[in-house]
Amino acid sequence: MAAAAALCRGRAPPPLVVILGATGTGKSALALQLGLRLGGEIVSADSMQVYKGLDIITNKVSPQEQRLCRHHMISFVDPLVSNYTVVDFRDKAVPLISCHAAACLAEQEWASPLRGQRDQYIFARDKIPIVVGGTNYYIESLLWKVLINTKEKPSSAPRPGSDRKGELEQLDSAELHRRLSQVDPEMAAKLHPHDKRKVARSLQVFEETGIPHSEILHQQQEEEGGGPLGGPLKYPHSCILWLHADQAALDARLEKRVDDMVAAGLLEELRDFHRRYNQEKVAENRQDYQHGIFQSIGFKEFHEYLVSEGNCSPETSALLLEKGIQALKQVTKRYARRQNKWVRNRFLKRPGPNVPPVYGLEVSDLQRWEEDVLKPALEIVESFIQGREPPAEPLRMEHDEKENKRSPRVCELCDRLIIGDREWAAHTRSKSHLHHLKKRRKLEESGHAGGTMGDSGDTETSDEDGSLPLP
């Protein structure tokens, strides 16, 4: 560790290391190994690990591992807080990394405990910040200037209660989108009317700043080092390690991990958390699995089992338990796919030059961890520490300069609004669109091109590309 600190001393600036990858690829294990060998400190960027409780289901590192290498941003938010945001995360995490960033946030409540304590900053202690996590917008908030702080100077840490964005999300989708169209038509045109969270956020930005969200984003993009998707990098000297695996191997590993969670006491953890925080809400029919830690993958999947335990036969309880376990396995595998898709879209296909180099590490065969993962990761990070070219080549960026991720198009054939060039291409290949196209051609060939498109049996509940019907 002392040797690693010596490598950093006198070299400005030390690198910021980001470890990305789907759940189950070994991000936490690699971070711990790098931290121990290179004198690093780990910053968790997981939106569920900030909350106290559900340590098994959120896959937190153990207390023993936290004692081996210093970890930050784990288990400090009350489970009943539902309005903890990515802005809160950024305002606490950024000052931990950089004293310059802390100075920029000096008026923030989160930064106040660090004022005048330069040795609190990871960079200032000749340590390497290692950001680990799977929550995309948390990681992006540390890498780029992409967020807009609409909060007044807080008087205390986030606490239980509603916020303006949550209030807006209660409105009807069409009404919410109509309000945004009146104050920020440019942003309204880029957001799908059914995407309540993003529409509500943009409306909140205007209400609390008096400036259209689209105008603020343009200002960020036009800053030196900015790009089409956001402002400049906070830490230009940074690198990304992407752990990826063969999908079949990862699926098998995730199924085993769920079984290991059950063996490690998952059911006891769920029962205790349900009794302490959720039982009363369920009884009053006000449970909320869309905000805070209650949206954690794994908790809501066991809802039926938890609420019926003790009130049904042992056979029924066993069936509900197995149903919850299988649901957890399926949703975990789907989540892993979404995480990998995000890495490809936001880093490998991101337009603009402001993307750190991404180095791929193959983790399909855990028996080859030392050769395929740890050794090359150490070589890459040590190269950044020493200011030389890494021996490995970063993954090639595959971005299309002409691609528009926010262009709105209406498919009149399917009566759907599609946002983004890539989504439009996916929609035109979807089963639903091709079905309607085939039917229209048949009608045209038979001389009945004016026939209806909404006959019974012709509509589907969802599209493979995820597009939604117009409101």
Automatic annotation (TrEMBL):
Residues 429-441 have a biased composition (Basic residues). Keywords: ATP-binding, Cytoplasm, Metal-binding, Mitochondrion, Nucleotide-binding, Phosphoprotein, Transferase, Transit peptide, tRNA processing, Zinc, Zinc-finger. Residues 429-471 are annotated as: Disordered. Residues 457-471 have a biased composition (Acidic residues). Its main location: cytoplasm. It is an enzyme of class 2 (transferase). Its EC number is 2.5.1.75. SUPFAM superfamilies: beta-beta-alpha zinc fingers, P-loop containing nucleoside triphosphate hydrolases. It catalyses: adenosine(37) in tRNA + dimethylallyl diphosphate = N(6)-dimethylallyladenosine(37) in tRNA + diphosphate. One of its GO terms (biological process) is tRNA modification. Coiled coil: none annotated. One of its GO terms (cellular component) is mitochondrion. This is tRNA dimethylallyltransferase. It comes from Chloebia gouldiae (Gouldian finch).
